[in-house]
Specification:
Elements (H helix, E strand, L loop, with lengths): L13 E3 L3 H9 L3 H12 L2 E2 L10 E3 L13 H13 L7 E4 L8 H4 L4 H14 L8 H17 L9 H11 L4 H16 L3 H18 L8 H12 L3 H10 L27 H6 L23 H30 L2 H17 L14 H4 L3 H15 L41 H8 L6 H15 L1 H28 L5 H24 L2 H23 L35 H17 L3 H4 L4 H11 L9 H12 L15 H9 L6 H11 L9 H18 L3 H16 L8 H35 L1 H4 L3 H38 L7 H18 L13
Parallel strand pairs: 1-4, 2-3
Antiparallel strand pairs: 3-4
């Protein structure tokens, strides 16, 4: 038929009178041929008879006006539909009814938007499905076919934004089941024969969604509409693949970048995408310089107000993250799309891997070149939820985790930079290629390692940031007090410091609230306790299965220490950051959420098993500093180290250190890590060494309260006495030797720095000081403060060392009576006396003392 429209009349509108009764009678007596004509009138809202009475307005189809009713069939309906869609201005062909209270408005009848018109026809058909039952299926398919044709041949509708129409229909379908059915059927047709045109069409749809979602804030209700749309579309794997390809910075073109200084290659480019925009919605700022949403006036907030605000943050987080989790579960439900989703996540982590490093928590540049903290927290919660089915200590599913994933670089690994991470023990390169050549990895393995890497980038990064802000607040509060004492309280300096403290406090409370969100804590604890049990299982097994368990292997609770078998080679595959995740979670709880362990006491055994296995075993954890950090984490639950003892049930640590299985091995483990710091290959800097030992002193002092631990130390001393002449000195002997060496060394260090302080004080008291330039005096003041800190530190650690020696010798005397040790101990005491009370020492300034 001709695409031109014949117009047998010149007026724009033809007005007809209403004859409802006759039309109703006609409908009731319609035969199948008449049904097709009724489709034209009741569904297409058109007519071929300009003189027939009508109950509502219609579009006159001039080209088909010569056909008789008995000649109507599906093909004629197809022609009518085609002609109707090609009318450039339907209002020019409108026959207006004079009926009052018309059921269908003229705007709907004259609809010019192709997809809107077709979806409207489909819905009107279903609304009269009983009447059109005999031809329903054919006519439904007709509308779907025309919709597919429009999408695959957009050149037929050059002036229409079909993708914009489609997204609007997707939004409206959330509250319209008939429209949703239409969309689902069109999508089913589209995906059966995917073409480049269809992919381009959906790329525009997703790009438009991104442009709408990107500026929405955390509280906007429209977010849920778009997430629901994406959730519905995710039932078609090919659409999920398009969605994630479209959200990959390397495949984007004509991207509306928020910050023109951010390159496509930077990690932050992942945030500037459809999926990234959803992940970045958070109560934490998504862009550098953006303000925090909550706790804007922290200085005026009561404890109750802070708690109430925190609970608001938690509710918002939980609601939104649950929605995102369900969406991602839909994404990965189909195996065809799962790889694309994991590839996107893996590439995102690869581009943002520096977020897991310490420098990124304090460098402002990191906020510009990497995705936001809120983005990573949301992604972490999603991954932790995906890990939930196997994140349980001793779950058989944990045996499906394949450690080789962390060293392989083949196509089945989506987290491709793991092999660069430092392993727990030395890895032999020659075995790597052999292990990875034909390796494939299951979903559990991928999610396990991705969850840990995401946790390292997000939660641990925020924890480091929180510690820095906490230190900054303390420092600025001291400066503020000094400024107030030296100046007027309303001076500009004090006002500036007060504003900075309030801003830091706002940041601190927002980050702390995010990290304390109960469900995040629960998910984190589940993953980390299950990881503890899995790592202990690997450590206690000497075999290298080179793949996930085939079902014959079983996990069981650790029964015996120390481990005497050869180290499992699979430990050389495991990255250190997994250990660091466990340590920092344990430390965070003790510092900022002390009640958590009280309500999760069952978890503590897994952490203790893990610490007992790895803290004192250089063959299973080579990094001495990391093993010392395990001791630091353990120190945090000792009650006298808490700022507020009332917040921590003092009975809980006693239960941990006295009743946990295998806890009697803790003294040996502490001595082992204490001594290993001194080994040649494990040696660390002076101050770092004693920083590592400080928490060990605290632990030893606390353990000394329990008979069982004093007895274990006595057993170690007994063994040392029996083997005191051995070529390899026993552990306890090496320990007490180090204590005596450290006592002398720290005494010397303290005296050296105190002498420097005295020299500096003499200079300040002389006339020379006032004649110095201001810059020189400031430099000397800084040196004075630094020397004072070193002197104080050396003296405190020296006293701690002597306290431990005194504590041990009060209970264990026999080994110190051995001639070799007795001579060394006497030499140490004489050295101390000689340097502290030498006859030529005078006190020049008793005030300084």
């Amino acid at each position: 038929m001709s695409k031109s429209i014949c117009k047998p009349f010149t007026s724009k509108l033809i007005i007809k009178t209403n004859d409802t009764d006759s039309k109703t009678a006609s409908l009731l007596s319609s035969s199948p041929p008449n049904l097709y004509k009724d489709i034209v009138e009741l569904v297409l809202l058109c007519t071929i008879d300009e003189d027939a009475p009508i109950s509502s307005s219609k579009i006159y189809l001039a080209e088909l006006s010569t056909l008789y009713a008995e000649k109507w069939d599906k093909n004629r309906v197809d022609q009518a539909l085609f002609e109707r869609q090609r009318i450039p201005n339907p209002r020019n062909e409108l026959i207006v009814s004079t009926a009052k209270n018309a059921l269908i408005s003229d705007d709907i009848i004259t609809e010019t938007r192709c997809l809107y018109y077709l979806s409207g026809c489909y819905q009107r058909l279903l609304q009269q499905r009983d009447y059109f039952k005999s031809i329903l299926s054919d006519i439904q398919k007709l509308f779907i076919d025309h919709s597919k044709t429009a999408i695959t041949l957009p050149s037929m509708y050059p002036d229409q934004q079909l993708s914009k129409q489609w997204i609007d229909l997707l939004i409206e379908s959330q509250n319209n089941s008939l429209l949703l059915e239409y969309i689902d059927r069109v999508n089913n047709e589209l995906v059966t024969s995917m073409t480049d045109e269809i992919e381009v069409f959906y790329k525009y749809v997703f790009h438009y969604m991104y442009k709408v979602i990107q500026p929405l804030d955390y509280f906007n209700s429209k977010l849920s509409f778009y997430i629901s749309i994406l959730s519905n579309l995710s039932q078609w794997p090919i659409l999920v693949q398009i969605m994630f390809r479209q959200s990959h910075p390397k495949t984007l073109s004509d991207r509306a970048t928020i910050n023109s200084t951010i390159s496509v290659a930077s990690g932050r480019a992942f945030q500037d995408t459809l999926i990234g925009s959803l992940l970045s919605k958070s109560c934490l700022p998504s862009l550098p310089g953006n303000p925090y949403i909550f706790f804007n006036q922290p200085n005026s907030m009561s404890e109750h107000a802070i708690q109430t605000t925190s609970e608001t943050v938690w509710q918002l987080m939980k609601t939104y993250q649950d929605t995102l989790t369900q969406l991602f579960k839909m994404f990965i439900k189909n195996a065809d799309a799962r790889s694309d989703v994991l590839q996107w996540i893996g590439d995102c982590f690869d581009e943002n891997h520096e977020k897991s490093k310490k420098w990124s928590s304090n460098d402002p540049l990191a906020a510009v070149i990497f995705v936001s903290d809120g983005f990573l927290i949301n992604l972490t919660v999603i991954l932790l939820n995906l890990a939930k089915p196997f994140a349980e200590p001793y779950s058989p599913k944990l045996l499906k985790i394949d450690p080789r994933y962390a060293i392989c670089q083949n196509a089945s690994v989506h987290l491709t930079n793991l092999y660069k991470e430092t392993p727990l023990i030395k890895r032999h390169k020659e075995t790597t290629d052999e292990k990875c050549s034909q390796a494939t990895f299951n979903f559990i393995t991928e999610i396990f390692f991705m969850s840990h890497f995401s946790y390292s980038c997000s939660v641990r990064g925020l924890y480091r940031k929180l510690l820095k802000i906490h230190g900054d607040i303390s420092k600025k509060q001291t400066e503020y007090k000094n400024a107030v004492s030296l100046e007027e309280s309303d001076s500009q300096t004090t006002k500036d410091l007060e504003a900075q403290i309030q801003n830091d406090h706002t940041t601190f409370l927002n980050i702390k609230s995010v990290l304390n969100e109960p469900y995040l804590m629960e998910l984190s604890n589940s993953l980390l306790t299950s990881t503890c049990s899995w790592l202990v299982h690997l450590a206690s097994s000497s075999s290298d299965s080179s793949s996930a368990s085939n079902g014959a292997e079983q996990m069981s609770i650790l029964k015996m220490l120390p481990l005497t078998s050869k180290p499992n080679p699979q430990l050389s595959y495991i990255p250190e950051f997994i250990i660091e995740n466990i340590i920092d979670f344990f430390k965070y709880i003790s510092q900022f959420n002390v009640r958590f362990f009280q309500s999760n006491e069952s978890s503590i055994n897994e952490y203790m098993y893990f610490m007992l296995v790895f803290m004192g075993d250089i063959n299973r954890l080579a990094n001495a500093h990391l093993r010392a950090t395990l001791a630091e984490a353990l120190d945090t639950i000792i009650p006298d180290q808490q700022d507020n003892d009332e917040e921590l049930n003092r009975a809980f640590p006693a239960v941990v250190f006295e009743e946990c299985p295998l806890i009697e091995h803790l003294p040996r483990v502490i001595l082992d890590v204490f001594v290993s710091i001194e080994l040649t290959e494990q040696a660390v800097a002076f101050q770092q060494k004693f920083n590592c030992r400080h928490p060990m002193y605290n632990i030893l002092q606390y353990l000394w309260k329990f008979d069982k631990h004093r007895l274990q130390m006595k057993k170690l001393a007994t063994y040392a006495e029996r083997h005191i002449e051995d070529a390899e000195a026993p552990l306890f002997l090496r320990f007490i030797n180090l204590l005596m060496n450290d006592a002398n060394f720290l005494l010397d260090e303290g005296l050296i720095y105190m002498k420097k302080l005295r020299t500096h004080q003499d200079m300040k008291d002389s006339d020379q000081w006032n004649n110095m330039p201001e810059m020189q005096r400031q430099e000397l003041e800084n040196t004075f403060k630094s020397n004072g800190q070193y002197a104080r530190y050396s003296n405190i650690m020296g006293i701690k060392t002597l306290i431990i020696l005194n504590m041990i010798t009060q209970y264990i005397q026999f080994i110190f009576c051995h001639p070799t040790i007795c001579e060394r101990l006497a030499a140490m005491l004489n050295y101390v006396l000689q340097h502290l009370v030498r006859s030529n020492y005078d006190v020049f300034n008793k005030i300084l003392l």
